[in-house]
Amino acid sequence: MVTKARRLSHLIFILIGFIIFIAILYGQDFSCTFCDHYSHHLQSLLLSPPILQPLSESVLDEEATNHVKDEKASNSEEKRREKVAAFAVGRAAEGCDIFAGKWVRDEERKPMYEERECPYIQPQLTCQEHGRPDRDYQLWRWQPHACDLPKCVPITCLLIEALTLAFLQLIYASKLENFRNHKKVETCRFNATLMLEALRGKRMLYVGDSLNRGQFVSMICLLHRLVPEDAKSMESSNDSLSVFRFKNYNASVEFYWAPFLLESNADNAVVHRISDRIVRQASINKHGKFWKGADILVFNTYLWWMTGHKMKILNGSFQDDVQDIEQLETEDAYRLAMKSMVKWVQRNMDLNKTRVFFTSMSPTHAQSIEWGGEPGGNCYNETSPIEDPEYWGSDTSKSIMKVIGEELSKSKVPISFLNITQLSSHRKDAHTQIYKKQWSPLTPEQLADPKSYADCVHWCLPGLQDTWNELLFAKLFYP
What is the pTM of this model? Predict the structure, then answer.
């Protein structure tokens, strides 16, 4: 008994020493190791008499029988979860909808990066550089109603978890399942170290319009500081594809311009200001060939469909001498794109190894009268969110939202829905407004009326789209 106790003490000291080494190695907050729930549960496991003292055969047989029963009961559920759990390190709390919540002003909140520290932000999104006088839009934190977004530090805790499980295996194997079922490894709101480690040897791809490009740039800004200058690069292999490489991770975060997902006459990533928009039916493979091999896919499409008119759908090819074009209601045309996207995912993605996300509509704020402002105004000079929890602007189509829900629910493969519409609808303050690079000289009339050229579509960085990536982070690792 004495020899066994000494051996156990040695193992405990080895475990603690290794934990300290890993915490220092990854430069993370060591206090994570002692998150209350985690440390208390470890203490009960490590110090409880049943672990340290041998149990009778009858007790062992009873526990084994119960374990088999529990395993059979949860087997089908575990199999279902395994199909959607690529990249997962835990599970979301029961009943937790991270997209239902409110914006909380946090004076101590700092952006996760500074605008000047991220040279990859396009000049259309650098609000501070272009003279925005306030930073209030950076002080708002998203707080879900029924739960919290992940906090603490994940990478160290995950290593601790693996070591703890191995340690418990040496002591008493039958307690492991109980530990797995009750553990709670918490994370910070966005842990760049964990994200980069998860991307090691992999490819993350954002596909869609300029709003998705903004989220792509946000992700780069959140990650790039962990990598030396000579180990990262931004490049474009064609007009549509932009690739940011983390060379020492053999990883990439990419953006592919496809505002309709299907082939269209607006597919040029630089020259695409076309009012007479035409979308080719059943043409997703034209772009999809560039998406193959992605491990994480994030789709979006919305703004370009909102023309105010019926959509022109091309049957055939853009090269046909006589084009067969039919006009469909926006919802019907949009449904064609959603169906094509779902089918493409089903045929080309291995959902046991990869994850697919679809981001809902990004709202605009073109009519301030809708939130109680002056008639004729828009997002210009707005510095705080809309307080009405039920606010839904006329620029955000509920009928399109319905189409998205219907088509994703029919999917035979899991596509995670990033429902950023309602939470973003409150952020009239977070747009670039007039604080961006203007590609054409402003007229005297525009200069006299700044709201006439305010951009109430795109978002300042750092800003709201970093929250979108926080939510993506939560759904990726805690589905």
Answer: 0.79
